[in-house]
Structures are given as structure tokens and as C-alpha cells.
Design goal:
809 residues; alpha+beta; Beta-Lactamase; 4 domains; 6-stranded antiparallel β-sheet; 15 strands; elongated
Length: 809
């Protein structure tokens, strides 16, 4: 009843009884009581400050966590905690400035905290901007060099110092309040003990009624300061300041406890996801992956039954097939396959959304064990997605309700499972394509060998026919001489004539046989050309089919080698880097084969534009200067003053040829230097001469090295690497650009490759010549005519990666 009134009202009513008699005593008591109220307000402000400081530290941690998540994944949803923290930080800082605005010491400490917060937020903001502009590699370097840990430690030290000062002031104010209450009691008790017994009893009662809840609050605050979050406050129905303070403090304790529990749940969720992802690494079959997913997830979310379906896209329409189960008993009336939209499994895959059943009928499904069986309480169906494509469906049943944390874990775990299913499917597809490619390559090789044998047989027959014709011609000459000598002998002449007629018929038959053999040879030549075209088209199509899954494999290997979550061992990271390196080499080889096939099949396109010579010089110096400096070589790129400002050609193809030639020059040169000269020659043409002081090339090998997959000998490939495609592609690119490549080399003295191109590419003039074989672009060169005299030109070029393949002696 009395607690409904404020403390001031109760004190005023008590003092009104003896106001006329004890005015001085009443004034002193009123002043002391006012001090107690002010101390209570200060304590409430101190608790608010402690709460705001705790929230400030939590928001800074959330902002740092969101920023790190975005730097690692690049997904904007990870910035949501960061954005919320920025808004809450401004509100908290404004509220702290309003509290104790008349306390210069507190305001000074708050002002010292502001630049520390601003500096940390600027560092976080710089990391996000660097991730947006520079990508993952730049963000990774930023994380390695980030000094944010020290900044956060300084912030926490400053916040903890402010918290300790506020707790110390809170204890002092509580002690002052208690001391003031005791002084009031002693003043009333000893001032007028006889005359004002009633007032003394009233003052004692009022003091006890006020100090008891404050004392309980003080004890609770001390326990919280000692880390005891299990402390509870009794329910208070009082409407005075102590009741309001008690309820406010109790709500603060509850909020703090919930915040800590939520943080612990998030930590446990992320730990389980990381553990699941680590266990799924290295799986190479869908069956083992599905079994591992179910056996890991089901016990973790307290599910007693589960099934996993995988989407089979090889059939039309696509179907979901049962791949693995957990404590599942198959039933005759239920199918193991579902189409999209069929049943809850198919509907979940069609909508790509989670389906949760909370009121499961008793006859829907039963979970059985050795002791009995019962229906589940909840069933959840989740899609396993990768880039918004359905990889499979996961269905779980449980005797308990799935709470929010479990559903969140299931959503995240389904994404991890979807990524791994896609990776395994891509790996299996890559293996199948490689096996098919090997089989087809072997068949093509056998056909080529058969055609070569046929060609040899035809050549032998042709030589035999030529010898027969020579013999017949000699016989005809002899017959003519005999005819002149034996004109008088009619009988012998007639016999000779008959013999001549017979031989003539034989010659005609021989000629018919030669004509038939020539036709057979032409038919076989056409079959060989058609086979070569089929090979080129097959390689072009197959290269595209191989590159798509291979790019996915490279991305996954790169993510594993980066080890962003830090859950891989050093050996596993090294294995991932080896996979990525080998895959990159394979992709480079596939690109070479694709470009070579495009040129042979005539599908290469030319993008013509003006190109400045200074741009060529800058690109070549930027690309090869580090490699030359590493080997101690001098790299010089010289432009002739007589050059025009630009040339019109395909920049990408031209730079590809120059990079191939210059890469070979640097690779095969151990000492000395490499020189590139660009100068005009006769007939409105340009020459690009790449000279080195390397190992040189033997004269009998200078023609063969321009063939595809050709090396001078096996030792060069083993020592320097290379596939034998670079010079072949460069030669064909030069021919397609309307130019040619010339070679001048001596063993152990160096080599000079000269590329001749027209200053202006003309498609109408070059297109007819593009059908000629690219080897015709390699022209013989007399001494002293290195960069002079006209040269033939062919058609436009295609791009190919720079492959060091020029053989040594």
C-alpha cells in the first residue's frame, strides 16, 4: 500500500506530523533523503552506462565479424551485422554523451574513446572497399597486414577502464547512500529521543523501506561484477523509485544473459558447419558423401530418421533418386524416385524452399527401434542448392520440434552439401570426358597410321608404273629403229607391227591401271583431309566440354588452397595447390588445342583495330622484364624512328605471337640478352625481330619445330618444358594475320625469329590465302636479307597462351 507512493511523498507525510515542533530536524532529514534520491538516480545512470558499454563492445565485435565474413566470401549478406552495428554505435554513443553530462571526467574519457572507435571503423570500411575493388586476393593481403587486433585490444582496454571506474563510483554512491541513511537515523534517534519517539520510529521505518531494496541491488551488482550471470532479483510490485530501479536492473540482467546465450549459439553453429565442411572434403563419390551428410546432421539436430535424394539431370524430365538413408525403413507404396513437383520432395525441389511439417498425422510415418515405434512430431524437407540449381533434397524427421537454431544450421548445411555434390558431379563428368577423349584420340591415331600405310603402297605402285612407262618408251624407240632398218623385209615388218600393236594394247591397259590408282589415291587423300577436319572439330568441341568442369575444379582447388577457415592441414593445403597448378597447366594445354583446332577448321575470327607501337613496347617490357631480370638477362625493345604511329591489325593475336617468341627467347637463353626490334621494311610492311644469345637451333631442325607437338629432341622438352604447340600456333596466327615468320639460327650462337606483317590488315586480300597451309608462311632467307625484301602474307590470327616450346640443339 505504502510502496505505491514515491519516496519523497512518504518522507513528506512523515515529517508533516512534527513539522511545527521539529522544523529544523525535519529540514535536516529532508535534505538527507534528497541526497539518497540523487544517489539512487546516479546509480541508475551508472547501470545504464555499464549496459551501454557492454553493448558498444558487442556491436564493435559484430561489425568486425561481418566485415571479415564479407572479405572472405564477397557476399553482401555478411555485411548485415556490420551495417546494424554502425547504426547502433551512433545511438549508443549519443546516449552515453547525454548520461552524466555534468561529469567532466566521464565526458573526457568518452571523448578519448571516440577517435579509437572511428579509427577502427575506418579500417573496417577500407577493407570492404578494397574487397570490392581488388577482389579476394587484395582482401586476403589486407587481412594479413591488418593491425585491427591491436586496435580492438586498445578499445577493449579503454571500455574496461571506463567500466571499472563506473563500478567503483557505483559502490561509493551506494556507501554514501547507506551512510546518509544512518546519519538521518542517528539524528532523529539521538536529537529528540523522548519528545519525538513517533517521528523516530517513522524515520526508521522509512529508512528501512528504502535501504533494503537498494542493498539487494548492490549485492546483485557485485555478483554480476564477479561474473555470476545466474543471479536473479525478486519480483517487485512497488511503484516507487526502488521498484522501478529493481525492475530495470532485472531486465538488464535478463538481456545480458540472452545476449551471451545467443552468441554461444552462433559460435556453436559456425563450429558445426566448419566441422561438416572439413569432413566432406576429399569425398569422391556421391554415395559416401550422402552417408556422411546424414550421419553427421541427423544426430546433431536430434533427428531420428532421414533420407537424401540426388537430382538426376541425365533423364528427361529430371528426377530425384534416393541415394542414402538414416534409420529409414522402405515401404512398398512409396517410390524411391520423384519428379519435380511430385510429393513434398519434388515440391521442395521445384520451389527451392524449405518445407516444415509441424502437425504430422499418426499414420504418416513411424520411427521404429528395437523397443517400439512412434510417429515423429516434426518433418523438415530442405533443397540442396548450388548457384540456385537443385542438386538434391534432404528430409529429416524428429520426435522433437526443430528450433530456430537447428533450422538455421540445416539451411547452412544444405548449402554446403549442395556445393560438395556439384563438385563431385563435376569431377565425375571430367573423368568421363577424359576417358572418352583418350579413346577417340587412340582411334584417330590408328586411322592416321592406316592412311599412311595406304599412301606408302600407292607411292610404290606409282613408282612401278613410272618404271614400266620408261621401259615401254625404250622399246618403242628400238622398234622404230628396227622398222627403218628392216623396211625391205615385209614379213618381218608385219610381225613387228603385230608385236607393236600388242605392246600398245598393254601400254593402254597400264595407263588405265595408273589412272585407277590415281583416283584411289585422290579418294584416300580426301578421306585423310576429312578425317583431319573431323579431328579439328572434335578437339574444338571437346575442349569446350573439358574447360567448363575444369574451371569449376580450379575454383574449388583455389578456395581450398586459400584455407580461409583455417581448418586444413599444411599437407592438405599443399595438395590443393598441386591440384590447382596441374589443373591450370591442363587448361593451358586445352586452350592451345582449341586455338589450333579453330585455325585448322577455319572458325577463327579477327578483331581489327589500330594499335600503337608504344603500347606494344610497354606490354612486352611489363610482362618479360621481371623474368629476364631474374635470370640476369638484358631485355631491350627498340622502336625504329621511321615507324608510323600505329598499325592496323588484331592486337590480341599480334601480342600473342610476340609473347610466344619472346617467352621462348628468355627461356632458352642462360646468359647474354634478348633484343626486340620493330622497324619498317619494303612494300608497306613491318618487321618484328626477336633475337637472343641462347642455345640456338640446328639447321636440320629449323623446319620441323614449326609443326604441332614437335620438339627438336626429347632432352629439350625434359629440360625446358613445353608442349610443342607455341611455334606452330604462332606460325598459323602469322599466316592468318597476312604475314610470315622467318628463322635464322646457329647452334650455341642464338636465334632470330622475324615476324613480317602488313601495316594495314586487309581481310578481302588475305582471306583467299588463308586456306593455304600455315607452313607456307615459313620462307627461306638468304644471308644479308634478314630485314629487307618483300615477303608473302596470309590471313588473320587467333589467340593462344604463350607456351615455351622452341627446342634446343
Amino acid at each position: 500500500m505504502v510502496n505505491r507512493f514515491k519516496i519523497g511523498t512518504r518522507i513528506g507525510a512523515g515529517f508533516a506530523v512534527g513539522l511545527t515542533i521539529l522544523a529544523v530536524l525535519g529540514a535536516i532529514a529532508y535534505g538527507t533523503t534528497t541526497t539518497l534520491i540523487r544517489s539512487a538516480e546516479r546509480e541508475r545512470e551508472a547501470y545504464q552506462i555499464l549496459g551501454y558499454l557492454t553493448k558498444l563492445e558487442a556491436d564493435l565485435t559484430n561489425a568486425e565479424t561481418g566485415q571479415r565474413g564479407y572479405l572472405i566470401t564477397g557476399q553482401p549478406r555478411y555485411l548485415e551485422p556490420y551495417d546494424r552495428a554502425l547504426l547502433e554505435l551512433d545511438n549508443i554513443y549519443g546516449a552515453l554523451r547525454l548520461l552524466q553530462s555534468d561529469n567532466p571526467d566521464f565526458q573526457s574519457r568518452l571523448a578519448d574513446l571516440d577517435p579509437l572507435i572511428e579509427a577502427r571503423l575506418n579500417v573496417l570500411r577500407d577493407g570492404i572497399l578494397l574487397r570490392d575493388s581488388g577482389g579476394f586476393e587484395a582482401a586476403q593481403a589486407f587481412i594479413v597486414n591488418d593491425d585491427g587486433r591491436q586496435m580492438m585490444e586498445n578499445l577493449r582496454d579503454q571500455i574496461n577502464e571506463m567500466r571499472r571506474q563506473e563500478e567503483s563510483m557505483l559502490q561509493e554512491r551506494a556507501a554514501q547512500s547507506q551512510l546518509s541513511a544512518q546519519q538521518t537515523t542517528r539524528t532523529i534517534a539521538y536529537g529528540i529521543p523522548a519528545a519525538f519517539i513517533l517521528i523516530s520510529l517513522l524515520g526508521w521505518w522509512l529508512s528501512r523501506n528504502i535501504s533494503r531494496p537498494l542493498h539487494k541491488l548492490s549485492e546483485t551488482a557485485e555478483q554480476l561484477a564477479d561474473g555470476n550471470l545466474g543471479v536473479t532479483l525478486p519480483e517487485s510490485t512497488a511503484q516507487d523509485e526502488t521498484g522501478i530501479l529493481t525492475r530495470t536492473f532485472g531486465q538488464m540482467v535478463t538481456n545480458l544473459r540472452e545476449t551471451i546465450r545467443a552468441n554461444e549459439d552462433q559460435r556453436r553453429l559456425k563450429s558445426n558447419l566448419a566441422d561438416l565442411s572439413q569432413q566432406l572434403q576429399g569425398q569422391r563419390s556421391l554415395e559416401s558423401l550422402a552417408n556422411l551428410v546424414l550421419t553427421y546432421i541427423a544426430p546433431l539436430v536430434e533427428a531420428q530418421q532421414g533420407v537424401l535424394y540426388v537430382c538426376d539431370t541425365t533423364r528427361e524430365p529430371a528426377r530425384l533418386k534416393l541415394l542414402s538413408s538414416y534409420a529409414y525403413q522402405a515401404r512398398k507404396h512409396l517410390s524411391n524416385e520423384f519428379e519435380l513437383g511430385e510429393g513434398l520432395v519434388g515440391q521442395c525441389a521445384l520451389e527451392k524452399q524449405r518445407i516444415l511439417l509441424t502437425q504430422v498425422p499418426g499414420d504418416y510415418i513411424r520411427i521404429s527401434s528395437g523397443l517400439g515405434e512412434a510417429p515423429p512430431l516434426n518433418i523438415v524437407v530442405l533443397p540442396l542448392l548450388f548457384e540456385n540449381e537443385v542438386m538434391g533434397v534432404l528430409e529429416l524427421a524428429s520426435f522433437q520440434r526443430f528450433d530456430g537454431l537447428q533450422l538455421t544450421f540445416l539451411d547452412e548445411a544444405s548449402r554446403v552439401a549442395g556445393v560438395m555434390i556439384n563438385a563431385i558431379a563435376a569431377y565425375m563428368q571430367t573423368q568421363q570426358l577424359l576417358e572418352q577423349s583418350q579413346v577417340l584420340t587412340e582411334e584417330l591415331r590408328q586411322q592416321q597410321e592406316e592412311l599412311l600405310q595406304s599412301n606408302h603402297l600407292l607411292e610404290e605402285r606409282t613408282e612401278s608404273l613410272q618404271e614400266s612407262e620408261l621401259t615401254l618408251q625404250q622399246q618403242q624407240e628400238e622398234l622404230q629403229q628396227s622398222n627403218e632398218e628392216l623396211q625391205q623385209l615385209n614379213e618381218e615388218l608385219e610381225e613387228k607391227a603385230e608385236l607393236l600393236e600388242t605392246q600398245k594394247q598393254q601400254v593402254e591397259r597400264k595407263n588405265q591401271e595408273v589412272e585407277q590408282a590415281r583416283q584411289v589415291l585422290e579418294d584416300q587423300a580426301r578421306q585423310l583431309a576429312q578425317s583431319s577436319q573431323y579431328k579439328s572439330e572434335f578437339l574444338a568441341n571437346m575442349s569446350h566440354e573439358l574447360r567448363t568442369p575444369l574451371n569449376s575444379l580450379l575454383i574449388l582447388a583455389k578456395m581450398l588452397s586459400d584455407n580461409g577457415d583455417g581448418n586444413l592441414s599444411d599437407r592438405q593445403v599443399e595438395y590443393s595447390r598441386t591440384i590447382h597448378s596441374a589443373g591450370a597447366d591442363l587448361l593451358s594445354l586445352i586452350n592451345d588445342i582449341l586455338d589450333l583446332a579453330k585455325i585448322e577448321s577455319g572458325t577463327m575470327q579477327v578483331a581489327v583495330e589500330a594499335l600503337a607501337f608504344t603500347a606494344i613496347q610497354f606490354e612486352l617490357e611489363r610482362t618479360f622484364q621481371p623474368a629476364a631480370a631474374e635470370k640476369g638477362l638484358q631485355l631491350q625493345i627498340a622502336l625504329d624512328p621511321a615507324l608510323p604511329n600505329t598499325l592496323t591489325t588484331d592486337p590480341r593475336r599480334l601480342q600473342q605471337i610476340l609473347k610466344n617468341l619472346l617467352s621462348n627467347a628468355v627461356k632458352f637463353t642462360e646468359r647474354g640478352g634478348v633484343t626486340v626490334r620493330i622497324l619498317p621494311v619494303e612494300g608497306d610492311r613491318l618487321a618484328f625481330a626477336v633475337s637472343d644469345t641462347g642455345i640456338g637451333i640446328a639447321p636440320d631442325k629449323q623446319q620441323s619445330i614449326f609443326g604441332a607437338f614437335q620438339q627438336a629432341d626429347g632432352t629439350t622438352s625434359r629440360k625446358y618444358g613445353g608442349t610443342g604447340l607455341g611455334l606452330s600456333i604462332s606460325l598459323q596466327l602469322a599466316a592468318l594475320l597476312g604475314g610470315s615468320i622467318e628463322l635464322e639460327s646457329q647452334p650455341d650462337e642464338g636465334s632470330t625469329f622475324t615476324l613480317y606483317l602488313p601495316q594495314r590488315y586487309e581481310a578481302s586480300e588475305i582471306a583467299p590465302a588463308a586456306t593455304n597451309t600455315a607452313r607456307e608462311a615459313l620462307q627461306p632467307m638468304a644471308p644479308g636479307q634478314r630485314l629487307n625484301g618483300p615477303r608473302p602474307f596470309t590471313a588473320a590470327a587467333a589467340s593462344a597462351p604463350a607456351i615455351a616450346d622452341r627446342p634446343g640443339p
